[in-house]
Amino acid sequence: MAISVMILDPQNDFEKHFFLPVATESFFKECWIPAIQSLGLRWVDLFSTGVDVEEEDLPSILAELDQLKEWADQNLEEEQKTKLFERVEGIKEKLPNAFQRKDAVVFIG
Q1: Are the CB atoms for 96 and 58 separated by under 8 Å?
Q2: By three-state DSSP, how is residue 35 classified?
Q3: Which distant-in-sequence residues (6+ apart) come within 8 Å of 19 by Cβ?
Q4: What is the pLDDT of residue 52?
Q5: What does the DSSP 8-state code read for residue 18?
Q6: Of 36, 37, 49, 64, which one's alpha carbon is 20 to 30 angstroms from that of 70?
Q7: pLDDT, tens digit, 9 for 90 and up, residues 78-108
Q8: pLDDT at 37 over 90
């Protein structure tokens, strides 16, 4: 299994094709969960079970992703850190684009 980002109830081609990989389940357990537990991250913790996200949730999620990167920088091996950084940066860059419609809902899980 893998954790990814997609738009629920897509209204156009952009939304239908919007997809961001987050992590494989094993990598999430190995590298993300220790950070989530150490930092007490609320939103990122929900990625493993799945969570609906609205535009107003973005600032909190992006802030938690920054914390995740800081923790990873101090606690992960170089290869793991590189992999996590690539995914987090992709999410931070592209997730805000998912909310071209004010009522869009994004599923992360």
Answers
A1: yes
A2: helix
A3: 4, 5, 6
A4: 98
A5: -
A6: 49
A7: 999 999 999 999 999 999 999 999 999 999 9
A8: yes
Q: Kindly state the average pLDDT of the residues 36-64.
A: 97
Give Cα separations from 75 to 19, 69, 71, 79, 94 (angstroms): 28, 10, 6, 12, 26
**Is the pLDDT at 6 greater than 90, yes or no?**
yes
DSSP string, 68-96: HHHHHHHHS-HHHHHHHHHHHHHHHHHGG
pTM over 0.85: yes
Q: Which residues of 77-105 are buried (b: 16+ CB within 10 A; e: fewer)?
A: eeeebebbeebbeebeeebeebbeeeebe
Q: Residues for the chain: how many in total?
A: 109
